[in-house]
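PROTOCOL LOG
Step 1. Enter all chains and additional molecules of the complex.
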Amino acid sequence: MRVLGFLVLWILATACLNDQDCLITSTNLVKIQFKNLKNKNKNIKLDSVEVSGLGYFYPTTDSISNLALPVSPMVNEATFTFYYYNSSPAVTVEYFTQAQVISAKCGAFTNYIDLRVTTTSFDSLKIINDRLRINQNANLEIFIE
Amino acid sequence: MLIWKYLLSSAFVLMIVGQCAGQKKNDPADSTRRFQKPTGIRLGTDLISLGKNFTNSSFSGWEANADVDFGRYYAALDYGSWTRDLPITNGTYQNDGRYFRIGADINFMLKDPDKNMFFIGFRYARANFNEHIVYQTTASNFGDFQVESSNIGAKGGWVELTTGLRVKIWKQFWMGYTARMKFLPSVTGNPAFETYEIPGFGQTFKGIYWGFNYQAFWRIPFKGSK
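Step 2. Run joint prediction.
Step 3. Record the structure below.
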């Protein structure tokens, strides 16, 4: 009987929820983490990174183990080419954009979902999170010797 | 599959409740509890839906209701239209669709000579609708841009538990209300558009949603019935 009472209260409480919070966690930045073959973070010195449709980025720090690269909201594919140590491996990703309304007050925004790698010249990499969000560590791990 | 499980379990619970409510010890089979030949059909409309056309500038719609008695059991069918033209902070959202509900009610006022009813029931509902959105947004390194997206031919479904009253006001004119607990919303449509509202249900992010209808009915008796 207590369980039933609790269930009724829970249903009543959840049914009275108002609009969602205006909390937008979506981003168009793919977070990339470099790792060594022992699965530890690896610092590398990048000369530059080319993002298809945008041109070149020049990381300002000497050595980095992670970076965030933008993807276009207009297309569903991006290629990142990394220039370092006289080599230029690349990775091409596909993703899906999804329109979502939060509420009249909060408006609408775009989700970037179903991230996947289509081609790459890296030896090994792994998708960790296929949805691009502000508060997450990495979407893509790239393993380098 | 989950919806059917809920429907079956809801129907089972209603049957048990219907059989047990008001049962007396050593009471011989009570004819008011059995299925009986239908005596008439009630056709009506939801006054709240009609009123929202005047009070809510973003909504236009209507809902028609019908039920047929089989003794204390009523078969119920609702059909509605729902159009939303909602200004949002960074654009506009539009939704246009139709929906229906089908289900049954059990009347707990068995001895009332006017057949007034207090009922509990369930509904299974489906909606067909189109959504469209235009909004301004921004993306890192790509600046501000406009997005236009549609969800054409989307289909939704949900389940309801209902309760309410029907009271005979004058001759064949009836009024009443129906309170609805709507749950288990599901949508199939364009994956590039996350559905905001299902016509007849409301906002999809609310897994459970309350609805309320205030209805007016006209009853048409069948031939040979009162």
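Step 4. Note key features.
Residues 11-17 of chain A have pLDDT under 50 and may be disordered.
The beta strands of chain A are 29-35, 48-51, 55-57, 66-70, 77-83, 90-103, 107-120, 124-127, 140-143.
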